[in-house]
Write a structure and sequence with these properties.
The chain is α/β, with parallel strands linked by helices and 217 residues long. The chain is built from seven helices and eleven strands. It has two domains: 2-32 and 151-216, 3-Layer(aba) Sandwich (Rossmann fold), CATH 3.40.50; 35-144, Rossmann fold (3-Layer(aba) Sandwich). It has helices spanning 14-23, 54-61, 77-85, 99-109, 162-169, 185-193, 206-216; strands spanning 2-6, 25-29, 33-37, 48-51, 71-74, 92-93, 115-120, 136-146, 156-159, 179-182, 199-200. Strands 3-8-7-4-5-6 form a six-stranded mixed sheet. It has a five-stranded parallel sheet with strand order 2-1-9-10-11.
Length: 217
């Protein structure tokens, strides 16, 4: 039986589990990271509030509410959907999975306005890094922590973030001949730094992963 590992929890991979059951694949779904809140303070006024992930939304709202006159921006649909569920409608929502393209679009949208970025402690700053320090403020609202988890040998490894890559390789190795799949560019880069090559999904997501797996098994 083919063995597949993905660095996401079982609760996030129900569709993938059904696919694996149909294809007689043994699935190990295990996130290798967890998140902790960080106390923060916003020092300067801002006009736009840019959220780079659903987690940045939740950890920001833990301490501060969003005022009615704030322009809200979202990196993509999953973050935008959460904001709408919470009663906040984004005026900007990035499309696609290319951070450079989203950053370029948001730069135009935010021209001449001050932007607040709630981020993780070790954020890659894919969007905020494009702006001058005078135009933005970054607040660290949460930190990513690794779980030291031993993963049994697999045939296919799917890594969903650079943090999961780092956590995995802290105590695990990939056996020779195993296939590695990366969720996006930053994850593929993290894998490359480990001296390994991965296949990158055309779009990050379970549906895209299932389509790719179906083409190689």
């Amino acid at each position: 039986m083919l063995k597949l590992f993905i660095s996401k929890s079982e609760s996030e991979t129900e569709e993938l589990l059904h696919f694996c059951e149909e294809k007689n694949i043994s699935l190990t779904a295990q996130s290798l990271i967890y998140f902790e809140p960080v106390d923060f303070e916003v020092k300067e006024p801002f006009e736009i509030l840019f959220f780079s992930s659903p987690r940045s939304v939740m950890f920001y709202l833990r301490l501060i509410s969003i005022s009615p006159n704030t322009i809200i921006a979202s990196v993509g649909s999953s973050t935008g959907n959460l904001l709408r569920e919470l009663g906040h409608s984004p005026s900007f929502e990035g499309e696609g999975s290319d951070p450079d393209s989203i950053a370029a679009e948001f730069e135009q949208f935010a021209a001449g306005k001050r932007v607040l970025f709630p981020l993780a402690e070790k954020s890659l700053r894919s969007i905020s890094g494009r702006f001058s320090e005078a135009q933005i403020e970054e607040v660290k609202v949460y930190r990513t922590c690794p779980k030291e988890t031993e993963i049994a040998s697999q045939d296919i490894y799917v890594f969903t973030s650079p943090s999961n890559v780092e956590a995995f390789f802290s105590i695990n190795t990939v056996p020779e001949g195993a296939q590695i799949i990366s969720w996006g560019k930053s994850t593929a880069t993290a894998i490359k730094k480990k001296g390994l090559i991965s296949k990158m999904l055309s779009e990050p997501g379970i549906s895209s992963l299932i389509e790719f797996l179906d083409s190689i098994i």
